[in-house]
Amino acid sequence: MIKKTIFALAAAVVLSFPAIAQQRPLLDEAATRITLDDAVARAVVLNPQMAQSEQSVVNAGESRRTALGAFLPSLSTNSGMSMRSTERFDPGTDRLVTGSTNSYNAGLRASYTLFQGGQRFSELGRARADLAVAEARREDQRFNVVLETKSLFFQALRQEELLEVARRRIEQATQSLDMTRAQQQVGGGTTSDTLRARLELINARQAVLNAESQTRAARFGLGRQVGLAEPVIPVVPEDLAPSPLPFQEAELLEVAENQAPSVLAARGAVLAAQEAYSSSKSVYIPSLSLSSGYNWSNQQASFTGGNASWNLGFSMSYSLFNGFSREANIIRAEYSTRVARLQEDEARLRSHEEADVALRSLETAELAIGIAGEAVAVADEDLRVTRERYRVGVAIILDVVT
């Protein structure tokens, strides 16, 4: 008795699954809608990789400002005061000494590097090159974000179209089922035909459920890209017809090979490596610096009186030997420059290759659109003919549902 009850409950649960599946709110047509331009604008602002690239540009800009600041003199100031009791122990005489020992002092110091073997100019050039690299990589990242956003946007649109195709399959399966039932009523069909038509209808419903799940996932992916924790419905653009490119193929390949952000970044890396190489060789040249200061001291908290002094100094420094560190740094910088040049050549070749592949993909996609339109027309006509043949008893239901 218990086994029968459990079996009955299990059967009831299983049989209730189709009804539950049909009631699942997979797609909410009242969800947030977004246009392609708005999606791209939001994604560029909210993308974390884009923000990281922007931070790299800011850091490179600050490094350039620091390199410019090396051409300016350094200024520093100091001040102080000390107060002691009227009676203190003098360690020099081993006696107690009475009297005020208050003191006040202030000073100003300036220093300037007159010559550093061209190192400051090399560092400034490297900072500018690093800034150009950061800006190029930011632009490259922006292109990647735009491409990813558009891919997710059109993927969501594509899933909606596939969902519509699945729903049309239900309509066609329903028509085929009605047709087999009508044929069976007039004695021209069989029960097997009706069962095959019903199986096709079941498969069509399953395809709709799968398409709804994939559409919801695509909308969630688009929502994540634009910073929303919900599915987002893409608004169909006004014109989706293919348009000709504004440049000739040779012009596009030339632009990709010389002006692509990845190529510009690699070129900037070469300049930065060259400047680093020049900077590493500047240690063989002496450096000259100038310093000056002004000091004031008084035993009273007053600017009148007291002692004042100033100083002016000139110094030269040169490292005679530092354990071959200079030679090692030069060799490293030289090989870094060579590697940067090879990376620039590789980036140029890769950009040319990717541009050519993209052009071929565009041509293929454009041809595929025309072929798909022709295939739809042929399929509609084939379905119409097959149904007519089934009505007159020439074709079987398997020809109709497949």
List the helices and strands and how they pair.
Elements: H1 2-23, E1 32-34, H2 36-46, H3 48-69, E2 74-82, E3 87-90, E4 95-98, E5 103-115, H4 119-185, H5 191-225, E6 232-234, H6 249-259, H7 261-281, E7 287-298, E8 307-317, H8 325-391, H9 397-401
Parallel strand pairs: 1-6
Antiparallel strand pairs: 2-5, 3-4, 5-7, 7-8
Helix pairs in contact: 2-4, 3-4, 4-5, 4-7, 6-7, 6-8, 7-8
Question: What would you note in describing this structure?
Answer:
- The protein has a single domain (24-82, 95-401), classed as Up-down Bundle (Outer membrane efflux proteins (OEP)), CATH 1.20.1600.
- The protein has 402 residues and is an alpha+beta fold.
- It has helices at residues 2-23, 36-46, 48-69, 119-185, 191-225, 249-259, 261-281, 325-391, 397-401, and strands spanning 32-34, 74-82, 87-90, 95-98, 103-115, 232-234, 287-298, 307-317.
- The radius of gyration is 40 Å and the shape is elongated.
- α4 (119-185) runs antiparallel to α5.
- β7 and β8 form a beta hairpin.
- The chain is built from nine helices and eight strands.
- The strands form three sheets. A four-stranded antiparallel sheet has the order 2-5-7-8, with no helix packed on it. A two-stranded parallel ribbon has the order 1-6.
- Its main location: membrane.
- This is Transporter.
